Amino acid sequence: MTHPSGGPRPTQVEVAQQPFTKSTFSGGQGSCVGIKRFGEWTVVGKHELGDDSPTLFFPSAHWDGFCSSIARGKPRSVGEVDAVFTPEGGFTLTEASNDDAPVIVYDRDEWDAFKLGVDAGELRSDDPRGVLVSRA
Question: Which pLDDT value is given to residue 125?
Fold first, then answer.
């Protein structure tokens, strides 16, 4: 599958071979937003689940636009990044134009760590400077 904004989407095998990067603000408990960078694509999941994590595939420009909206204090969906912010302080993510994509639910603690990481310049597709999560 290709997308108008990028080259071929990475395969599940390619995704499984690369570790997630997470925010340096993520605590030891629970899972957090994790990303994997593949050129024009950014793959998002829950790092703690490793290969069992549901994954979402976003054009990197859309992911970076979403992160920029968070850094500006006005979080919103951007392009293929369909985000819904919950009254409990968490959020959900899915792919806007893929009805078969999973919906990943993040709680308040995961949102807080993610937002702090984005504010610090981490987890952008072009420079994911968070913590590399080992594949052990």
Answer: 64
Measured CA to CA in angstroms, residue 36 lies from 73, 74, 93, 106 at distances of: 24, 24, 15, 17
Whether the CB-CB separation of 26 and 133 falls below 8 Å is answered with no
Q: For 72, what's the count of Cα atoms within 13 Å in the CB-facing half-sphere?
A: 9
Residue 44 near residue 60, CB atoms below 8 Å: no
**3-state SS of the chain: helix, strand, coil percent to 5?**
25, 30, 45
| Angle, helix 60-71 to helix 108-119, in steps of 10 degrees | 90
Instruction: Report residue 111: phi and psi, to 5°.
Output: -60, -45
Q: Which amino acid is at 40?
A: E
d(CA 72, CA 54): 28
Of 49, 48, 77, whose CA–CA distance to 63 is shortest?
77
pTM value? 0.84
- Rounded-to-integer distance, Cα 136 and Cα 134, Å: 5
Q: Is the pLDDT score of 124 beyond 80? A: no
